[in-house]
Design goal:
Elements lengths: L18 E3 L2 E9 L3 H11 L9 E9 L7 H6 L5 E3 L3 H4 L6 E4 L6 H10 L3 E5 L6 H12 L6 E4 L6 H12 L5 E9 L16 H4 L4 H15 L3 E10 L4 E3 L5 E3 L5 E9 L6 E9 L8 E8 L2 E6 L5 E6 L9 E4 L18 H18 L12 H20 L3 E2 L1
Parallel strand pairs: 2-3, 2-5, 3-4, 5-6, 6-7, 8-13
Antiparallel strand pairs: 1-2, 8-14, 9-12, 9-18, 10-11, 12-13, 14-15, 15-16, 16-17
């Protein structure tokens, strides 16, 4: 199995930071965007002691948001309150900030991400890492000029223990020849047609990708990390709810797709074999809350996992006999980056968020991670997703199969 290389890592390894927290290296962070995901990161930092054998400890030094009132949670909830600002450029000028985590609407990615890199900071940015292919290319080119700055993309779902196990099965060749792959991210947050419109339903802010831009990298992370190459795509994109009320109750058009279903022809470069990949990113999926899943069918072993049951990994091993049966393995808290929680207990969203940040800190400080699927999403990975989503838009427009 040919796992994707990461050509952005050239020349990057073993960074060292001042030792200031209990003998452990400290990495200073600035958060640009004080919303949901910024708070999730700050929460992960506040309970960093939940992790074992970490090479460094993150410290949130500064947070920016639209208003200081919006940022009051950080002052009230964090053990050591960070500095607060309404000007994100203050974070770039702060010498105590080594790394910036940017969680912002998609139309701001190009300006902010490139400014972070020019300021000499390491970067973790939210997907899709640019509102479109052109914006991503600009960010990627800026990163190439600075190979010693670590740049990663926030996507946490593949850090569930069951997903990590599937990744190792792929990497080891235990799957055999790949027959078919299915991945997706489904939820019903927009099922109510009277839910007020937000920026994710507006192409000027979210981008034309719609649900693909917001959810797609999560569903792409493992197939792309496996090194499987999408050759072409036939996409069906749906605007299920075409208008929603604004804050004043006036109906406004929703000009991005709610649901995207992509049918891809994939190639495994290790074998040259082709196989189908079905990818679904749906904001209107009746019966779903926030369900991420992966299913890999192989000639030797098949495996599947869904966050609907976050402990359960299902495996089917084929040994040439007539009987075939899926067996369920309760994964518990067997995380890639060790934690204090007993292995028999459940993992949840906040745990895999912290696992993602453990991967980032480990790679930042040591220059390596335990295995390919234990790495955060790279620029190379997200670049592939942009090519796929751009082809999907063209496929929808013309009703054609488009090359990726």
């Amino acid at each position: 199995m040919a796992i994707r290389s990461d050509f952005w890592m050239t020349g990057f390894a073993k960074l060292h930071f001042p030792i200031t927290i209990g003998g452990m290296q400290k990495v200073g962070f600035g958060i640009i965007g004080g919303g949901l995901m910024g708070r999730e990161f700050a929460s992960a930092v506040a309970r960093w002691g939940h992790l074992l054998k970490m090479p460094a400890k993150p410290s949130v030094e500064m947070v920016s948001g639209l208003t200081l009132e919006e940022l009051s949670w950080f002052a009230e909830s964090m053990p050591t309150p960070p500095k607060l600002t309404t000007n994100w450029r203050d974070i770039l000028a702060n010498p105590d900030v080594d790394v910036v985590y940017a969680s912002l609407p998609h139309n701001m990615h190009e300006e902010v991400f490139t400014a972070v890199l020019k300021a000499g900071k390491h970067l973790m940015g939210e997907k899709p890492f640019g509102i479109d292919q052109k914006a991503f290319n600009t960010i990627a080119e800026e990163s190439r000029r600075r190979p010693k700055q670590l740049v990663r993309v926030a996507s946490q779902m593949h850090f569930f223990p069951a997903a990590q196990k599937i990744g190792q099965m792929i990497e080891s060749g235990e799957i055999g020849q790949v027959i078919e792959v299915r991945t997706g991210f489904l939820h019903s947050s927009d099922l109510d047609p009277l839910k007020p419109i937000n920026w994710k339903r507006q192409a000027a802010i979210n981008g034309a990708y719609g649900a693909m831009g917001d959810l797609g990298m999560h569903a792409c992370s493992m197939p792309i990390r496996a090194g499987w190459k999408p050759l072409n795509v036939r996409a069906i994109l749906r605007k299920v709810v075409k208008e929603r009320p604004d804050r004043n109750g006036k109906m406004q058009p929703c000009d991005t797709p709610d649901n995207a279903t992509l049918f891809c022809e994939m190639q495994d470069p290790a074998t040259g074999e082709h196989f189908p990949w079905t990818l679904r990113t749906h904001r209107i999926a009746p019966g779903e809350q926030n369900s991420w899943y992966i299913e890999v069918l192989g000639t030797k072993t098949s495996a599947r996992f869904s966050t609907v049951n976050c402990k359960r990994l299902e495996i089917l091993r084929y040994n040439g006999g007539s009987d075939q049966a899926w067996c369920a393995i309760e994964m518990g808290s067997h995380t890639t980056y060790p934690i204090i929680t007993a292995a028999a207990f459940e993992v949840g969203f906040c745990d895999v968020i912290q696992q993602m940040w453990a991967a980032f800190i480990t790679e930042l400080v040591t220059g390596k991670v335990p295995h390919a699927f234990a790495r955060c999403v790279t620029l190379e990975d997200v670049g592939m997703s942009h090519r796929l989503f751009t082809a999907a838009l063209k496929s929808q427009e013309h009703g054609t199969v488009e090359a990726v």
